[in-house]
Design a protein that fits this description.
It is a single chain. The protein is of the alpha+beta class. It has one domain: Roll (Transcriptional Co-activator pc4, Chain A). 21% of the residues lie in helices and 42% in strands. The chain contains three helices and eight strands, in the order E-E-E-E-H-E-E-E-E-H-H. It has helices spanning 55-60, 101-114, 125-133; strands spanning 4-14, 21-30, 36-43, 46-54, 66-68, 71-75, 82-87, 95-100. Strands 4-3-2-1-8-7-6-5 form an eight-stranded antiparallel β-sheet.
Length: 137
C-alpha cells in the first residue's frame, strides 16, 4: 500500500529585479517514489510549476547547501529559522523561496519515517528496460 504526505505552506517568492510575490508551496512525498520530493508552486490557487528533487537534498539543505540542477536547498543567509530553496527553471528566471525550518524538518522526518534511508526498494530494472524498449508504453 502506498502512503502519500503533503505539506502546503504560504511564503514569498523572490525573483531578482521583481517585487516579492506571495505564493503557496506544496511539498509532497510518497513511498512509491522514495528518493524524491515534489515541490509545487501555486499562485492564486492555480498550480504554476512543479519540481522534483532528491529527498536527501532537502534533508541536507537544513544544514548546508545541497542540490544540483534546477533545485538547491540551503540554510537562510541570515535567519536561522528559515531554509531557502533556490529554483532555476530552464524556461524562466531563477527565484528563491524561504520556508520555516521547523516545518521542513518535520516534513523530512515524516518522509524518513515512511521510508528510512537504506530501506528504499530497488527499482525493477527489467520492467524499466522493457518500458524503454517498448517506447515508454
Amino acid at each position: 500500500m502506498t502512503s502519500h504526505r503533503s505539506l502546503i505552506y504560504r511564503t514569498t517568492a523572490l525573483v531578482p529585479g521583481c517585487p516579492p510575490e506571495l505564493v503557496s508551496v506544496a511539498l509532497d512525498y510518497t513511498d512509491a517514489a522514495p528518493y524524491e520530493v515534489g515541490l509545487t508552486l501555486y499562485r492564486d490557487s492555480h498550480q504554476t510549476q512543479m519540481f522534483m528533487f532528491n529527498r536527501e537534498f532537502l534533508a541536507d539543505g537544513l544544514h548546508t547547501e545541497a542540490g544540483q540542477g534546477e533545485v538547491m536547498v540551503r540554510p537562510h543567509n541570515s535567519m536561522t529559522s528559515l531554509v531557502t530553496i533556490r529554483i532555476r527553471p530552464a524556461d524562466a528566471y531563477p527565484f528563491e523561496i524561504d520556508l520555516d525550518r521547523e516545518t521542513v524538518t518535520d516534513f523530512v522526518e515524516m518522509a524518513l519515517m515512511l521510508v528510512p534511508v537504506g530501506q528504499e526498494p530497488l527499482p525493477d530494472f527489467d520492467a524499466e528496460l522493457a518500458a524503454l524498449l517498448d517506447g515508454g508504453q
